[in-house]
Amino acid sequence: MDHLVLEIGLAIALIAAAGLLSAKLRLSVIPFYILIGMAVGPHAMELGHLDFRFIESAELIEFLGRIGVLFLLFYLGLEFSVSRLIKSGKSIVLGGSIYISINFALGIIFGWVAGFQFAEVLLIAGITTFSSSAIVAKVLVDLKRTANPETEMVLGITMFEDVVLALYISVLSGLILSGSSTIGGILLSTAISFGYMLVLLLVGRKIVPLLNRALNIRSNELFILVVFAVLFLIAGFSETLHVAEAIGALLLGLVLAETEHVKQIEKFVIPFRDFFGAIFFFSFGLSIDPTELGGAVWYSLAAVAITLIGNITAGMIAGRKAGLSPKSSMNIGLTIMGRGEFSIILVNLGKAGGLASILQPFAALYVLVLAILGPLLAKESKHVFRLLDKVFHFEARHVKRKEQQQQLQEETSPQ
Hints:
Elements: H1 4-25, H2 29-39, E1 46-47, E2 50-51, H3 58-79, H4 82-87, H5 89-113, H6 118-129, H7 133-142, H8 151-178, H9 183-206, H10 208-214, H11 220-240, H12 245-256, H13 262-286, H14 297-321, H15 326-335, H16 341-352, H17 359-379, H18 381-392, H19 394-412
Antiparallel strand pairs: 1-2
Helix pairs in contact: 1-2, 2-13, 2-17, 3-7, 3-12, 3-13, 5-6, 5-8, 5-14, 6-8, 6-16, 8-9, 8-16, 9-12, 11-12, 14-15, 14-17, 16-17
């Protein structure tokens, strides 16, 4: 532990260098943070007191990264609100169901065609279905899309995924680790998770006047201590109920967005969001060993292609059902393209269960490609939409449907 502070300083310096390079090239910063993390790690060199292997500090960097996810999702919630989320409840459930169904079905087909065993097929389907909350949050904030019409659907799908993920991990854990699973226990766990999220949102909305008074604190130091104490307590408690700690942070952000102190909270949170968020993506890259990726290249690239198709298709259908324009619908699929922490959790479950060893490099490369490609596609969504619109004529079909609906309304309306 003699050089722990030096290692953390080196990590921050590398992150800063990656950020400066991305700014110079005017590209999304996420891929640069991940790639610089991959470039170092256990396979890297040691240069005097500068240890690029990050052996001593790896656990601490990982923990700081977890904090980064909390701040990313918390800030995203602050930019939104419970009211907007509740108003879109039905469309969010429908959109989330569409998104998960399409991507899960494609994952099952891919795993089966690739010749994997039943448990491995289910694991692959999970890896290819659930998006990264941290990457979604970073993309929305960096591209300044928190006020876009499709953002409530993106957030809703992210929360809906978490409920389904809790159910899915329960089923998969029972199947892989013990060979069986109790349906009653799974349903109870899912009901508790969903009920907790719903209660937190509804109760939080009701106690907004109380929160306004409680946060009426003159001292900036005490104000930020109180807010961060609640953030970590809510996030930590959520984890005990099988709701991801990041989703707990998102829920708290949604509640506090209704208070009169939201702007003050945002001002204090932004520096922490940027600092710890950058460490998360570096930590994510640090967990990937590029020397182990070779044997899974074709599997990973095929899965990426399937995910591109599934995400765009699901986004277009979910957006259409919610009454969004084709362009906004395309943004849904591209914004939630990134895969990350949940995929890594699932593949670690497979490792513990003794499943095929190729699943780890497959998941690492798949996640890496989409963690890089997703933000880039989201940033260039206008060009992606124009390109696909030339082939599929989304805009023309949308206008035609609106004209048909208007004509039908005119014909059925009383004279």
